[in-house]
């Protein structure tokens, strides 16, 4: 099903136009808009040196609590048992309600704080799978002031060539409607993806990574 999947020219051109946000200066990859039709795996090769984070904000302040109330598991392929950082649904006695302790378990995996994000990034970057990572891209709907604080915290880890986010994309009026697809394309190709296991946006990128035989240890979750 995914062998010949391809993103639309609109999405690919947006990726190409923002190429410098994702691709380290020492890495050379062809612009997608200049390539003829190929398979999914041949077209969307890994971008060495790139780590992508998925930091969902907005409605997740309430959504993550709702997930806890109904004892939900990671969504779709994110729940595959062979993936790293699996989520174990904590024991509960009543659907529609949960203990404060269990709600906090969900919160940490669904809506991590800036301190928790920074600690997890440091942990993942220390693994062999992340060797050479030096550019960071944050898929997010977070507000600019939040992203400023998050970037400041991540810069303190050192070793970054650039830290950018969805808010830094330069898109025309058509591409703004497919900005999340652009994010998924970036995440699909990252050397390391650190995603939100409760998010379908993350799971779509994970699905493509699995289909294209990316190393299991290159896909991580909060």
Structural features, described:
With 222 residues, the chain is α/β, with parallel strands linked by helices. The protein has helices spanning 9-17, 19-22, 40-43, 60-69, 100-110, 114-125, 144-155, 179-189, 200-211, and strands spanning 47-55, 135-140, 162-165, 190-195, 219-221. A five-stranded parallel sheet has the order 3-2-1-4-5, with helices on both faces.
Distance between the termini: 29 Å
| Tally of alpha and pi helices | 9
Shape: globular
Helix content percent band: 25-40%
Could you name the CATH class?
Answer: Alpha Beta
Largest sheet: 5 strands, parallel
Q: How many domain modules?
A: 1
> Could you give the order of the helices and strands?
HHHEHHHEHEHEHE
Structural class of the secondary elements?
alpha/beta
Radius of gyration: 17 Å
CATH architecture designation: 3-Layer(aba) Sandwich
What strand line-up does the widest sheet have?
Answer: 3-2-1-4-5
Low-confidence stretches: none
CATH fold group: Rossmann fold
- Round the mean pLDDT to the nearest integer and report it: 95
**Number of E-state strands:** 5
- Beta content: 5-15%
């Amino acid at each position: 099903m995914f062998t010949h999947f391809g993103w639309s020219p609109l999405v690919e051109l947006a990726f190409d136009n923002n190429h410098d946000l994702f691709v380290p200066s020492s890495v050379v990859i062809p612009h997608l808009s200049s390539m003829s039709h190929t398979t999914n795996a041949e077209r969307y090769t890994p971008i060495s040196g790139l780590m992508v984070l998925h930091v969902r904000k907005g409605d997740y302040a309430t959504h993550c609590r709702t997930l806890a109330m109904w004892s939900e598991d990671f969504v779709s392929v994110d729940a595959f048992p062979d993936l790293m950082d699996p989520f174990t649904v904590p024991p509960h006695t009543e659907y529609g309600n949960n203990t404060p302790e269990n709600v906090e378990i969900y919160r940490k995996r669904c809506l991590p704080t800036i301190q928790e994000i920074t600690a997890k990034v440091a942990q993942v970057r220390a693994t062999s799978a992340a060797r050479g990572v030096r550019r960071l891209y944050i898929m997010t709907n977070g507000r600019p002031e939040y992203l400023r604080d998050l970037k400041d915290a991540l810069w303190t880890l050192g070793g970054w060539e650039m830290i950018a986010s969805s808010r830094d994309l330069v898109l025309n009026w058509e591409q703004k409607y497919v900005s999340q697809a652009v994010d998924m394309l970036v995440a699909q190709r990252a050397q390391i993806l650190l995603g939100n296991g409760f998010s379908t946006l993350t799971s779509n990128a994970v699905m493509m990574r699995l289909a294209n035989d990316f190393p299991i240890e290159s896909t991580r979750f909060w």
